Amino acid sequence: MENNKGRNGAENSVVVEESSSEPKEYKDYKLAGVRLRPGWPVQHFCVPPELAVTDGEWVVVPTEHGEEVGIVCGAPVTVSLAVDNAPAFISRLASTYEIECYYANLEREKSAWNLCMERIEAHKLSMKLVRVESFFDGSKIIFYYSAEGRVDFRELVKDLVKGLRTRVEMRQIGVRHEAKMIGGLGNCGRPLCCASFLGTFDPISIKMAKAQNLPLNPNKISGLCGRLLCCLTFEFDTYVELSKGIPQMGKQCVTPEGEGKVIRQNILKQTVTVALPEGEHEFSAEDLLRHQEELAKKSAEVEKESSKASEKDDSEEQKKETSKKRRSKARKKRGRRRRSKAKAKSEKKPQKG
């Protein structure tokens, strides 16, 4: 199952049933990044073999709202992708008229924004306008807004339809989608992940922050939207994989310097700090693993020697037991012989008349 979200941030769930028994078919595609609006994240589309596109080229691409005009960002690259998951193909190069319509559409969106802000203030509605998106053909305009609760915008829609002379849709979004549309810089100093390359919002839990040894301070693990950082999700699997060979926090650990308790981890550096009787020492996971292998090797050698000694003792005991059985058999045999001789001797004596 695959969940996709549109470029406007609204959720559009698409369910794709995949058969795990059938192998996927892969093919080489030439991908080009296309930006549909200034400041919007780059979307990737396949380039048809007969079409030559370069950086800065104007193209027409298919979207959920119909055909849109965008500009190519960067040179196309060849990537091997599953046929079922390949992006849509670029339709064609944009004409001069379509490029002019693109800029006219931007002006239409600005006018619609100003009108909507004016009418929101006039009606005193408790809502925040986030983005205005006009279809390329001008058949519809979508207003994205955020609000704490439900908003009665019926009068607002009437004013917008009357002023814009087109279909109008009001769409409420959450704080994550709002941050995705507005953009900004995160705690790391880089552009927000959701506004730059993330296409979906996956579930995030505090467990992911704990696994990455992050301080459970809401101010440090929350983004501009006030929710948990998106990077906790796609970095979580890496931390889980790297932490497999590292002793866990609070566990006893045998080190080359002795046995102690793990008090700190540095998963990316692959090191742990162990509290020993003489103080704290930092060890790499490789050194600890090598030490454990040496201990296991010595233990195996000791067990082997002990096994040999035990086998030797068992062998000597078995020999003694065998010797004892042989002596017992010999005594019994000699006893039978003596009894046999005595019997024969008694039979040979003449009987008295």
Description of the molecule:
Helix 1 (96-123) runs antiparallel to helix 2 (154-164). With 353 residues, the chain is an alpha+beta fold. The N and C termini lie far apart (119 Å). The longest helix has 64 residues, at 285-348. The protein is elongated, with a radius of gyration of 41 Å. A hairpin with a 2-residue loop joins strand 5 and strand 6 (66-72). It is 39% helix and 24% strand. Strands 3, 4, 5, 6, 7 and 8 form a 6-stranded antiparallel β-sheet that branches. Strands 12-13-14-15 form a 4-stranded antiparallel β-sheet, with helices on one face. The protein is built from 8 helices and 15 strands.
Brief overview, please?
With 353 residues, the protein is α+β, with helices and mostly antiparallel strands. The protein contains eight helices and 15 strands.
What overall form do the CA principal axes indicate?
Answer: elongated
Strand-pairing-aware structural class: alpha+beta
**Which stretches of 5+ consecutive residues score pLDDT under 50?**
1-21
Mean pLDDT figure: 83
Order of helices and strands: EEEEEEEEHEEHEHHHHHEEEEH
Alpha carbon gyration radius: 41 Å
Strand content: 15-25%
Note the gap between the termini. 119 Å
Query: Biggest sheet: strands, sense, closure?
Result: 6 strands, antiparallel
Strand count: 15
In total, the number of domains comes to: 4
Tally of alpha and pi helices: 8
Helix content: 25-40%
